[in-house]
Each structure stands twice: as structure tokens, then as C-alpha cells.
Amino acid sequence: MNLDEIESFLKSADAASEQKRLRIVRSIGMYSVGLFAVKASPQGDALSVAGSGTLVQIDGAHYILTARHVWHEVLRGSNQLGVTVRQADDHRHLIDMSTVVPIGPAVGPPWTENGPDIVLLRVPTAYVGAIKAFKVFYNLSAEGPSPPRGDSLQTWFLMGVPSCTGVFSPTHASVEHIGAEVGFLGSQATEPWDLCDVNFNASQFPFPRSVRGMSGGGLWKIYLFEAPTSDGFDSVEVLAGVAFWEFKLNGSNRRVRCHGTESITKLKLLADEIGVGHR
Fold it and tell me: What predicted TM-score, i.e. pTM, was given to this entire model?
């Protein structure tokens, strides 16, 4: 299948095309988690939706990559960090907040569309095994996955847990991990925290069609290329950003701002410097 045929295939609305998109979403969804703040109360654990995150690994240490406002405004004042790892699961995996180490730019409110709004949350070793039973940590220290050599098509997906598709009570949450194909609008090479914008079609969301809850979710660049598979092509998924800001609704669309690959690289270098003493 050549690139024109791959593009036509993916634009079609038939079952085979939808299955291919779902396979991509399932692949990147293995790295995605929903985040909750959990506070003890006489009535039981009280939940607050915080946002989304991507599980990453740096030189053997494990982290949740998310937006800094998710940490600063919701998570840091709680007793425990709740991590969702399965559909319709709430806070099965709880992490003592006193053991979580944030690594990122030393900034706080007011939060703006220019950032910086990105952070790594160090996951203590004692909690890693339970998460790995269901999820995978994306290795930021490894070479791959690399874009294919030769011609390829590129598309973009934003992964996260939107609040508007979940069912919540003070003590329980049932969430939906979604992967939405988005249109890449462009990037800004601001130092040291780069920015990029994507167009999110929120027509499937109830009004006001907010992507709240997807803050901190991963932006993924998908490379599609010819390959000797049953579909005639294959894909490589590369973590390319972290969502942190939504702009005003324009029809059914929202522009979503992310930090890009340069910002992720900057955080990795900070983790390398700070994390030595914690290993």
C-alpha cells in the first residue's frame, strides 16, 4: 500500500480503518493515566479530578509526566495520588503524596497560555510494580522508537481522561481514557520551554465542549509507512508533547496548547541532575 492509499484508507469511515485507529489508540493508551487527588474524610476517601499524565522512564527511574498546574493546584495538597490504569477504574492505585518528588520549572500561578506548565512526578519504586501490571512506562532514555527512514505520513493524537465523559461522586470516579486525532497547527521555539498548538474537534463532547481533565495528557506524533503487514502499512508512535491549556471554543473546535519535545528533553535533563541522589 503506497502513501496515497494509506491516507485514503485512514480517512475512510469503514470498519477496517476504524480498527487501525483503535489499535494506535490502544498502543499509546498503554502509557496514559488519569490522575486524582485523594483526601481522607470521615465519609471515606474524597476524590478530586486532577488531570491526565503519561508514564515515562528515565535511566531506570519512573515518573508521571503531566502539567505543573495539575500538581500545584490539585495534587500536592492531598494525602494520596490516585492513578487510574484501567477503563471504569477509579483510584485502585494509590501513592502516598509525601513520597512523590516533583521535578520541573519552579513556577506557580498565575498560569498562562505561555507556560511553563510541565512537570515530572517521581513514582517511588514500591508502587511501580503494581502500575506495570497494567501499563507501560515510555522510555525517554532509549533510542527508539525512531521515525521510519524514507517516506511516511504523519498524524497526531492527544491522549487523556476528559472530565466530561466520566461519572463522579465525592468518593468514586469512573473515567474514560480517550485518544483523539488532532490537527497540528504549528510550534513556537521559545527557550527553554517550547510550545505547540493542535486543533481538537470536541463535537463529541457535551457543551461547553471543554477538554478539562486532559491537562497533562500526552501529545503523540504517529508515523505511518508502507510495510509487509496484513494492512499493508505500519506505524511508529513518538511522545511529542504535554497538553496544558485550552483556548475559547470556536464552533466545535478548541485550540489546545502543549509543551513540545524540547520541553520534555529539558525535563529529562533536570531529572538526570536531580534524580541521582534518589536512586
Answer: 0.91
In the predicted model, what is the mean pLDDT of residues 233-245? Answer: 93
Beta strand spans in the chain (E): 32-41, 44-58, 61-66, 80-84, 93-96, 101-103, 119-123, 138-139, 153-160, 167-169, 172-174, 178-188, 195-201, 218-226, 233-246, 253-259
Q: What whole-number distance in Å separates Cα of residue 132 and Cα of residue 115?
A: 31
Instruction: Report d(CA 194, CA 114) in Å as an integer.
Output: 9
Sign of the Cα pseudo-torsion (100, 113, 164, 24, in order)? negative
71-87 residue pLDDT tens: 999 999 999 999 988 76
**What is the rounded distance in angstroms from the CA atom of residue 211 to the CA atom of residue 154?**
23
Say how far apart CA 276 and CA 69 lie, in whole Å.
25
Q: pLDDT class for 254, splitting at 50, 70, 90?
A: very high
- Give the integer Cα–Cα distance in Å for 57 and 53: 13
- Set of cell numbers at residue 138: 515510555
Indicate whether 28 pLDDT > 90: yes
CA distance 129 to 95: 12
